[in-house]
Amino acid sequence: MNIHKQSTIGVIGAAGQTGVAVLKSLLSKGVQVRAVIRHESQKEKLPENIETIVANNSDWNALACAIEGLESVYYIPPVFSKQEVAFGKNVIAVTQKHKVRLVYHSVMHSNTPTMPHHWNKYQVEQLIKKSTIDKWTIVQPAMYSQTPLSFLNADKTRIIAGFDMNKTFTPIDLVDLGEAVANILISDRHHQKVYELAGNEKLTLSKMIEIIRQTTGKDIKPVRLPSLIVAIGAAVKLRTQAVLMIKTMFDHYNKNGFTGESKDLIGLIEREPTSFRQTVERELALYCIQ
């Protein structure tokens, strides 16, 4: 059974790549949306002509106003935030009080203490499960297929990584993620469920680089550097001080890779996941690597 499309669905953390993907998918399904962002300047990142409210995750009253009248909300926490658990408590509290359905954007293998940003999400997951919210869903995405493209250096001749490039990943395309989440949000069949969302290809970063090289026709070289060096660069790019969080993620990838199962994703989008090659072909213009 689908939720009535006249009901408004909110996205907290709407201005990032994940939020925009979810908004676009909801809009394509004719759903009314409300984008909750942290700064007024983030409006320029959003699709045009949608309702927008500015609210900081640390401001309980602002969050309460932002979700007033919503049917459901999708909460995407800030990337690598040391305040993630505190922010999560605020979102849980306001959705609980206003009886708004909560869908939480976590991460695959959240129960991994050696990766603090995963462990923070796991703690929020447990708080949701212990809350009095009846209607909640947790999604746990794998690494995005777009992520290796972000490893490209400025002149688009090298992909720099801080881990073993022969470890295996099961990347998920952001468009597939947006569609899966939108389908969860417009249906009432997903309450109190946890979904692991991964693609169905097992790829090493070396293989992904080869696909990018074939697709672009560029001689893109793989370069491995110490995890700390790459983490510092990533932190600067992401405008975060969480260098050690990023380093521990790379160190985990170096030992374990990052793989999951695709059955939940396939069940939610009712088709085969987008291949990594298809993602690269679509993203060429966005990343200016033609």
Automatic annotation (TrEMBL):
Alphabetized InterPro entries for the sequence: NAD(P)-bd_dom_sf, NmrA-like, NmrA-like_oxidored
SUPFAM superfamilies: NAD(P)-binding Rossmann-fold domains
NmrA-like domain sequence ranges: 6-258
This protein's UniProt keywords: NADP
Top-rank taxon, per record: Bacteria
Family under the similarity heading: Belongs to the NmrA-type oxidoreductase family.
The protein's name: Putative nucleoside-diphosphate-sugar epimerase
Organism: Capnocytophaga cynodegmi
